[in-house]
Write a structure and sequence with these properties.
single chain, Uridine Diphospho-n-acetylenolpyruvylglucosamine Reductase, domain 2, Uridine Diphospho-n-acetylenolpyruvylglucosamine Reductase, domain 3, 4 domains, seven-stranded antiparallel β-sheet, 17 strands
Amino acid sequence: MTTAQRHTAALAALADIVGPAHVLTDPDLVAGYETDWTGRWHGHAAAVVRPGSTSEVAAVLAACTRHRLPVVPQGGNTGLVGGSVPMDGELVLSLRRLSEVTEVDPVARTLAAGAGVTVAQAQRAARDHGLDFGIDLASRDTATLGGIVSTNAGGVRMIRYGNTRAQVLGVEAVLADGRVLTRWKQLTKDNVGYDLPGLLTGAEGTLAVLTKVLMKLVIPGDATQVALVGIDRVDDALTLLGAASRTGLVLEAAELMTAAGVDLVARHTATGRPFTHAAPFYLLVEVSGPGDIESRLLGVLDDAGSLVLDATIASGPADKLWRYREAHTEAVAASSRTPVVKLDLSTPHRSIGRFIDDLTAGLSDRFPQLRVICFGHVADGNVHVNLLDVPAASQERVTEFVFDLVTRYDGSISAEHGIGRAKARWIELSRSPVDIDVMRDIRTALDPAGLLNPHVLF
């Protein structure tokens, strides 16, 4: 049987499973699933299948295994490394219909939900019970729980609650052969065998397809204060954060921005610059804690003396101040003449300031035609490097320069976005040969035919 015949037989079988209306082959309907959010990654899908239950996902994967049809799982398609885009005629397995929050347990502080539930849905469901969801990111309205678990997303609250893996209690997932794996217990302590939910978290859809997740919820602080602070150096941000923590203030979020990034956002959103005189860097910090938080935060800023060039404070959620940070992604995308090269990196805290200085100087010297906008979760050592106006012919050389530099600083080429397709060729910069061999062995054990997201990671 030829490849074309196999695909035709597979699509007929899939239509029997999910119904013809949920097997999309029309190019106009499929197009939105074939390009990622950044516009950098474009591919081709054999079809898009939209199952409505775990049993349908299991039947779909069993059929794909029989017909040797590769599968790319996809949630909200908000990833930034090309990890959910079909590149070579794979089947897109869309999990968007698995969109029900099935339970919020206010006693155990857990949320059970389908993989297609968005972060914003999970937040609303938790807040209806006086709780909150520990992961927050700018793409909250479209990013799905299956997607953030598959990529082990971090987000702006990681300094407070940890990454997604820290929030996962249980999973329901379908293996490549159609078997359903369920590890689902509302237990704080359960030490029996391998941590399979932890293994599937961050696996980028290469080991199994997540269909349901059991997530921890958190108790939100009663009130927060948000400060936007102008500073001269990145290290000044770390000094201020350390001072705030020593007073007993709880860091809810801590974001670093540059003058170039804030200026870009101010122009794009027409909100105006935050201060009369621009600062080289800006720290956006949100804190909580007992007592008079505002007075304590003002005290930290006063005690910092000349480290603070200018500052403004607002009671949380302080949407206007947060807008300077959260509008970075859209402002960068709107400003660049080419699809933005987005590199998500981390360095040790002691090195982050020198790394940004060396990065900016090195890019200016070697690639004067591009622009660089850096921002990120400074308390986590996480820098989002956005490269604008990069010709397609230069993308790999620019990426290689940045990755070589972060490796010299003993950092990571992926802090929270994953490897996907964008970084697969450079994975050896952050993992040893033995480490990579073990990961390959795990992948082969669970998906011997290599049908799940075949071009991701390696």
